[in-house]
Amino acid sequence: MSLARRSARTVVYTLVLACVTIPLTASRADAATTVTSYSFVSAPGDWVGGGASSSYGPPGASFTLSGTAGSLSFGVTTSGENWTVNLAAPAGAQLHPGSYTRAERAAFRSGSRPGLDVYGDGRGCNRVFGSFFINSIEANSTGQIVELDATFTQQCEASSAPPLNGVVKYQAPGAAPVVLTSSNLSSVQRQPITLAASIASGSGGTPTGSVTFFDGTRQVGRATVNAAGQALVTTGALKVGARTITAVYSGDGSHSPATSSAITQQVRSRTTAYWFKSGARDYIGAGGTASYVPADGSVNVTGVANGFNLNVSAGNENWTALAAAPAGQNLQAGTTYQTRRFQDATYGRLDVSGDGRGCNQTFGTLTINAVGFDGSGNMTLLDATFVQECESPTAPRLVGSITLNVPA
């Protein structure tokens, strides 16, 4: 990911005393000198590190850092390995210099807990127990992290498990004025994600022009730079795998053309999966977006001819969807049903709830793209999308997809 050149508005957090956990402002000269690198020491029996020790630095490894001081993801790529370290503050907070204990798996942490998730080389944890320490963290004026110095300890599946200890250091390159981000760096095939390119204004005022987004060499979208200096493209057309996304800015009379650093978008198979995108102020999804596949925990879809149930249990997250055709009807491929919380002869059923939130009434639609059953009448194939409004047909929408054994 490309990061904007630092300016006088850069916000710097620097640790002065080990007991201080609030941000302190310092000049660039006061900030710790950080050389981008990653190292870890894995105790015998640790699942993720495999009992090994290793260190990575340029030029043999490339590094990315995406996110903000609320939640960030540090990535390491070599010719044969990929490692990711996710760090997150408790919900609604920001990462500052200091100690973070009782960390849970970052994507599924409870509101009061910090998040940690270290995985790579094909190995990750379903549950995380750990802690981390931020020595220094620095964000630029757009909120992107440009410097990070942190250490971590992670136990996989149990707090008594052998530890994985590591050190993360990151110093952003200071050249490109295009910052590229994704609304969800780990999505499911056909799940819409929003790619955002932020153009640094510099001394040329508000930038204009356009941005073209690429998956490798394939163009996936183009958008005009808006008044906030951003270009946004939403797409659900990325193929399964680790996609290399870049943004190319056209330039204008006061700003030179530029290309962002690449970000890695992980697109996972939708063989069995659940994803949702929640509108602002939607009660159920709380304005967020998320995706789940069996690797994240338990994702189960069961059904018969007239309806199906989804149950997701991943870390601290639990989601349920109850869906059915109108009373007396069976689910038919290529059909969209008008839905309510409770089915009748006119309306099918749709009731999506989770994370402790549910609706008294629902309004929406259920679309069956594909459905199939075995000889006993049990559902073996499902490709369904839904739209749900909670309590009112004019409420913000929760949209999503539920799939079972659908070939990629």
Folded structure, characterized:
By secondary structure, the protein is an all-beta fold. The protein contains no helices and 30 strands. Strands 1, 2, 3, 4, 5, 6, 7, 8, 9, 10 and 11 form an eleven-stranded mixed sheet that branches. A ten-stranded mixed sheet has the order 22-21-30-29-28-26-27-25-24-23, with no helix packed on it. The two termini are 28 Å apart.
Chart the SSEs and their pairings.
Layout: E1 11-14, E2 37-42, E3 53-56, E4 62-67, E5 71-77, E6 82-88, E7 98-105, E8 115-120, E9 128-139, E10 145-156, E11 163-171, E12 178-182, E13 186-188, E14 193-199, E15 210-215, E16 218-224, E17 230-235, E18 241-249, E19 258-259, E20 263-268, E21 272-278, E22 289-292, E23 298-304, E24 307-314, E25 317-324, E26 335-340, E27 348-354, E28 362-373, E29 379-390, E30 397-404
Parallel strand pairs: 7-8, 13-20, 26-27
Antiparallel strand pairs: 1-9, 2-3, 2-11, 4-5, 5-6, 6-8, 7-9, 9-10, 10-11, 12-14, 14-17, 15-16, 15-18, 18-19, 18-20, 21-22, 21-30, 23-24, 24-25, 25-27, 26-28, 28-29, 29-30
